[in-house]
Amino acid sequence: MSSTYRDLFASASDGLRLYARDYGLSGGTALPVVCLPGLARNSQDFHALAEALSMDAFHPRRVISLDYRGRGRSEWDSDWRKYDIGIEVGDTLQVLAAAGIEKAVFVGTSRGGLITMALGASRPELLAGVVLNDVGPVIEVKALMRIRGYVGKLPLPTTIREGGEILRRQSGDQFPGYTQEQWEDMAKGTWHEQDGRLALSYDPNLMKPLEALDLDKPMPDLWPLFEGLKPFPLLVIRGEHSDLLTVETVAQMQERHPRLKALTVPGQGHAPSLTGDAVAAIRNLIAEAETGADASP
C-alpha cells in the first residue's frame, strides 16, 4: 500500500468485493472528490491528481478513486453481463456509503463520466460539481470500434517497458507526443505483477459486452442525462486527438449548460491524463463548487 492512500474495501449488493483508494484526511470540511475511471482502467489512473488534491498545502481534501468490479483490485464477476453501467452505478453507491461520503465533486473519465451522468439523474444530491474527462452525451461509433478492437485482446508483455511498446503501437495516433515513461505509466494501469510475472489488470470478459453491441444501430440518446448536470458547475476536458468526444459535441454541450467550462489537452487523445493544466482546471472547478463563485482567472 502507498503511504499516500489507504485501501478501502466495500461489498457490492450481490456480495462482490469492491476496492477503492482512499487519499487524504477523512474528516474536515473540504469537499471530497470521487474519481471514476474508464472502461478497462482503474484507480491508478488518478494517482497524480489524487495526490495533488489530497496533499494540497492550502486546501487538502479527501479523494476516493474506484476500481469497478472486474478491474484493478476489485473482484471479477463470474457473469460478464454484470459489467454494466447500471450495476456499476450501484457499486459506486456502495463504495460511497462505506466511505461515508454524502456529497462530492465527481471526476469521471470516459465510462466514469457516463456513470456520473447516471448519478446526476438518480442521486443528484450526491453531486456538488462534475468533471467529464473526454466523454459527453454523444459517443462516436468510430471510437467504440477502436476500443472494441483491443479490450481483452492485447498480447501479454513480459516487462512494463514491453507493455508500453504494445500500447504505443495500439494507440500512438491518439498520443503522438507521449514519451516512453508516459507509455510505461499507462502500462502500469493495464498490467500488474502477479506471482513474478505480469497479469492483465481487468477481466478480459469486459470485451463481451462490447462485442454484444450492435454498432449499426443508433447509439442511445444521452442528452437527457446530460441535462441533469445543469444545476452543477461542470468542466469538460477533451484530448485534442480524441475520437470519442468531438469538438462539435463539446460546442453543443456548452450551448446547453450555462456553467460549463471546456479545456482541450494538446497532443493527447482518448482519454487525456489528468496532469498539468488539467489539475489546475479541476482545482478551479472544485473551488467554484465549494463557494458558488467562478474561481477561474
Polypeptide structure, described:
By secondary structure, the chain is of the alpha/beta class. It is 34% helix and 19% strand. The strands form 2 sheets. An 8-stranded mixed sheet has the order 1-2-4-3-5-6-9-10, with helices on both faces. Strands 7-8 form a two-stranded antiparallel sheet.
State the main characteristics.
globular, 8-stranded mixed β-sheet, alpha/beta, 10 strands, 10 helices, 297 residues, single chain, Rossmann fold
Short description:
The protein is α/β, with parallel strands linked by helices and 297 residues long. It has ten helices and ten strands.
Topology diagram in text:
Blueprint: E1 5-11, E2 17-23, E3 33-36, H1 47-54, E4 63-67, H2 85-99, E5 104-109, H3 111-122, E6 127-133, H4 141-148, H5 160-171, H6 180-188, E7 191-194, E8 197-200, H7 207-212, H8 223-227, E9 234-239, H9 247-256, E10 260-265, H10 277-291
Parallel strand pairs: 3-4, 3-5, 5-6, 6-9, 9-10
Antiparallel strand pairs: 1-2, 2-4, 7-8
Unreliable sequence segments: none
| Binned strand content | 15-25%
Provide the helix percentage. Answer: 25-40%
The average pLDDT is 94
Class derived from helix and strand content:
alpha/beta
Q: From the alpha carbons, calculate the radius of gyration and give it in angstroms.
A: 18 Å
Largest sheet: 8 strands, mixed
Total number of strands: 10
Helical region count? 10
- Approximate shape: globular
CATH-assigned fold name of the domain at 5-140 and 221-291: Rossmann fold
Placed side by side, the strands forming the largest sheet appear as: 1-2-4-3-5-6-9-10
- Overall CATH architecture of the domain at 5-140 and 221-291: 3-Layer(aba) Sandwich
CATH class of the domain at 5-140 and 221-291: Alpha Beta
Q: N- to C-terminal separation?
A: 37 Å
- CATH homologous superfamily title of the domain at 5-140 and 221-291: Alpha/Beta hydrolase fold, catalytic domain
One letter per element, helices H and strands E, the order comes to: EEEHEHEHEHHHEEHHEHEH
